[in-house]
Every structure is written in C-alpha cells, then in structure tokens.
UniProtKB/TrEMBL annotation:
EC number(s) from the headed UniProt entry: 2.3.2.27
GO CC annotations, alphabetized: lysosomal membrane
Protein's cellular compartments: Lysosome membrane
Protein name: RING-type E3 ubiquitin transferase
Signal sequence coordinates: none
Keyword Iron: no
Organism name: Lepisosteus oculatus (Spotted gar)
Family: Belongs to the RNF152 family.
MF annotations from Gene Ontology: ubiquitin protein ligase activity; zinc ion binding
Length: 115
C-alpha cells in the first residue's frame, strides 16, 4: 500500500483542500476520512454515505447530518497544534495606503478546532 506524506494526511483526498474548521476531517464507518464539505456533496440519500474508495456504506440515522459524524482523531490532533509560530499575522490598511503586519498571540483554546 502506498503511504501518504504528512501534507497529504492533512488534506482531503477528494478536493485536495487542507482540513480546517469549515472542512473538518470526518471518519466513515470503513475508517476512511474525507472533509465534511465533500461528504455533504457526496451524500446520495438522507440515510447513508458511500465511501468513494471502498464503497463501504456509513448509515446516517434520521435527522443526522454529516457534521455529526465523528472527526478523525489522528488528523484533529495534528491540525489542532499551531504549526509555524505562536502568532497569527494580521494585515491592516492604514490611511497612508501602506500595509503593515502585526503579529498577535494565539490563545491556546482558540488554536483548537471548535467541537
């Protein structure tokens, strides 16, 4: 089996976007993972999602949405850790038409994806 690189693990293998609070890594019953946006688009009925790799079926109870599927814990722990620095750049435009970057500290609880 071909192993995935660290960057590949952090991105949905359907749309190739990185996982984020909007594109949460959702775990199917077959143990494959893809983002919540792709799963919502792939959902063939209100009752199930079919895995694009193995065709395994993940049943969805009545009223159950894709957002209620479990997150992939291995990916969540990797993306919840701030990568390059403890600061998030903020760009502001000043009246002089110049653009300056101000580093702001990231609160540890804000670095985690919302539940």
């Amino acid at each position: 089996m071909e192993s995935l690189s660290q960057d590949s693990i952090l991105e949905c293998q359907i749309c190739f976007n990185y996982y984020s609070p909007r594109r949460r890594p959702k775990l199917l019953d077959c143990r494959h993972t893809c983002c919540s946006v792709c799963l919502t688009q792939m959902r063939t009925s209100q009752k199930e999602i079919r895995c694009p790799w193995c065709r395994g079926v993940t049943k969805l109870p009545a009223g159950f949405s894709v957002s209620q599927l479990p997150d992939d814990p291995e990916i969540i722990t990797v993306i919840a850790i701030p990568h390059a620095s403890e600061h998030t750049p903020v760009f502001i435009r000043l009246p002089s038409n110049g653009c300056y970057m101000l580093p702001l500290p990231v609160a540890k609880e804000r670095a985690l994806l919302p539940g």
